[in-house]
Sequence to fold (539 residues):
Amino acid sequence: MTDGPSLGDLLALPFMQRALLGGLLTGALGGLLGSFAVLRQLSFFSDALGHSALLGITLGILLGLNPTLVLIPFAVLFALVVSRLVEHSRLPTDALLNIIYSSSLAIAVVALSFVRIYKGGIHQLLFGDILGISWLDLVLIVGLLLTALAYLGLTRRDQILLTLDEPLALSRGVSVPLHRLLFIVLLAVVVAISIKAVGVLLISAFVVIPACASRLVSRHFNGYVALASGLGGICAVLGLLVSGAFDLPSGPCVVIVQLIGFLAALALAAQPSTGNEAS
Amino acid sequence: MAEMVLEVSDLTVRREGGTAVEGVSFALAAESDTALVGPNGAGKSTLVQAILGILPHQGGGVRLLGRPLGPRGQLPPSVRAQLAYLPQTFAVRNRCPLSVAEFVGLGWDPPGLQLPWRGSERRRRAVEKALAKTGCTDLADRLVSELSGGQTKRVLLAFCVVRPRRLLVLDEAQAGLDSQAAEQFYGLLFDLRRSEGWTILQVSHDLEMVRRTCDGVLCLNRSLRCWGPPDHALSSAQLERVYGRGYVPYHHHHGGHPSR
Fold:
């Protein structure tokens, strides 16, 4: 362990304040979207999206543009194309996603090896960097969180029915294709924006682990979504603090804290239930 | 003349390159109970899903409560709110953490954008009433994914009864139920049909039950082979036309189904 600055010193640093705020908001966003994504079996999709994002970042570097701004349209386009491919392909979804993300990752890593300025930064891209969160990122995250809350809140009935059973949702007049598309786009943007803090290799954990932990202990849907979001935010803040205090990569620290939260939920869920069991 | 709740004219539905349902025409009068029967692969589920707009149709038309259904299932929300559907299989995806009361509340919520907290008190009262009507009050806080087959069907009926409906479409409601659970389910459905004034269209393989409880039968094998009262539609000659020569109808022995 290194002799790093105290927690108080860290919290006084503007970049750390930005990182913590960004982590809190992206964690909450990841938990919010993840609570629906996990139930809709989109966990692997977010993983593939995260890995492929490196290609988007590489494109941004090659074009000399802000990688975040390039990454958002790239992720949206990628999500839309992959959704179409999955819908129309005869291959199993997980196999198709595997081909796409490993190819994108390979192309991106080879392309990055030609960009001298980023050679040292690949570690940060892969595992996240708390120093990387800028004011622009924070503005984007706040806007995205408000958009996600408004969209999911106003269409709550449609979102739950769609998550539960598509034919039942269609019979109730839910625009299933439209909501599926909008959700995928939202998820893609959240993944794109969260990558700076967590890194491309671990981004799916941001979406998946808080939602899974919440699912283990939740008995109501509203509570499930709120807990997933809260856990996402809290784990991100704790992980970033550990990362800052011990000079460790931020993404893995957040994911390890999430894992601890998940294990706690697992232990809690294993407790004998006081409720009635199904007959 | 009785009001027509559902009018289907020359309906054609294509799926995966083939024609699943062809040139089907019939109409259901208000408060009638009609069964849709036919062999496996006859297009029964496809037909009911096309009627509700779950699947698109490629020819002909459907009118629900006098309003035309769009080719991709478009229907005015006020009409849509008066329809209910019980799917053949309702496997709650990935143990979705949804309580029974929350699920029934989704049946009450009107279509479209809505503030989450709007009408929460009215929704709560409607849910309580629906759970009481279907004998599900003690299940209110249970997870939908934890319910047994019989409990799930009753909760689905609560989802339907939480708001006034005109047409109830059931796709093999007895699937997955043992004879006792099927008995209880049909008893409840029969009571609710009378008290709520529902018009029912139900896909069924249980010809014994159909003969006892329904006042109309549609025999489908891609196209409509016959349509009429059970005594006529379920005669040996008609069944051979639908199921093929040598068909012996499978009888469930539920004994005490309510009769028409």
